[in-house]
Automatic annotation (TrEMBL):
<keyword id="KW-0479">Metal-binding</keyword>
<keyword id="KW-0813">Transport</keyword>
<dbReference type="InterPro" id="IPR002327">
    <property type="entry name" value="Cyt_c_1A/1B"/>
</dbReference>
<feature type="domain" description="Cytochrome c">
    <location>
        <begin position="27"/>
        <end position="126"/>
    </location>
</feature>
<dbReference type="Pfam" id="PF00034">
    <property type="entry name" value="Cytochrom_C"/>
</dbReference>
<keyword id="KW-0408">Iron</keyword>
<dbReference type="GO" id="GO:0020037">
    <property type="term" value="F:heme binding"/>
</dbReference>
<keyword id="KW-0614">Plasmid</keyword>
<dbReference type="GO" id="GO:0009055">
    <property type="term" value="F:electron transfer activity"/>
</dbReference>
<dbReference type="GO" id="GO:0046872">
    <property type="term" value="F:metal ion binding"/>
</dbReference>
<keyword id="KW-0249">Electron transport</keyword>
<dbReference type="InterPro" id="IPR009056">
    <property type="entry name" value="Cyt_c-like_dom"/>
</dbReference>
<keyword id="KW-0732">Signal</keyword>
<keyword id="KW-0349">Heme</keyword>
<protein>
    <submittedName>
        <fullName>Cytochrome c, class I</fullName>
    </submittedName>
</protein>
<dbReference type="InterPro" id="IPR036909">
    <property type="entry name" value="Cyt_c-like_dom_sf"/>
</dbReference>
<feature type="signal peptide">
    <location>
        <begin position="1"/>
        <end position="23"/>
    </location>
</feature>
C-alpha cells in the first residue's frame, strides 16, 4: 500500500503527517472516545444537541467559531482557521496559548498520543 493510500485509509492528512504528533498510525478512536469523556461535560457530540460549549459534531473541516448559535469568545472568532487535524492538535495542546482569552477553561493535553486519539475520535463525529 502506498503512503498516500495509507493516509487516505487511516484518515490522515499531509498536514497531520508533517506535524508528527498526531499522524501516528497508532491513533486509537476508542481511546480517544474514553479520553473525550472529560470533555463531554461541556461539549455535545450529537448533531443539534446543546451544552455549555459548542457542539463538536462535524468539527473537523468546520471553520472556527461557526457552530450553530453558540456565543463564541472574540478570541476564538479572531482565529479565522478551519479545524483540521493540525489546528485541533495545536488547540488541544493549549487552548489559551492558541486563543488567549478563549472561554475554553481546559488547560490542554500535553501528551501528543492522547491528542491524536481524541482527534481520531473527533474525526468520526458527523454533523
Amino acid at each position: 500500500m502506498s503512503v498516500r493510500a495509507f493516509m487516505l485509509t487511516a484518515g490522515l492528512s499531509a498536514v497531520a503527517l508533517a506535524s508528527g504528533a498526531l499522524a501516528t498510525p497508532t491513533a486509537d478512536v476508542a481511546r480517544g472516545k474514553a479520553l473525550f469523556a472529560r470533555c463531554a461535560g461541556c461539549h455535545a457530540v450529537v448533531p443539534g444537541a446543546r451544552s455549555i460549549g459548542p457542539n463538536l459534531a462535524g468539527v473537523e473541516g468546520r471553520k472556527a467559531a461557526s457552530a450553530g448559535s453558540y456565543a463564541y469568545s472574540p478570541a476564538l472568532a479572531r482565529l479565522k482557521i478551519t479545524w483540521d487535524r493540525g489546528n485541533l492538535d495545536k488547540f488541544l495542546a493549549g487552548p489559551q496559548k492558541m486563543a488567549p482569552g478563549s472561554k475554553m477553561a481546559f488547560a490542554g493535553l500535553a501528551d501528543p498520543g492522547q491528542r491524536a486519539d481524541v482527534i481520531a475520535y473527533l474525526a468520526t463525529l458527523q454533523d
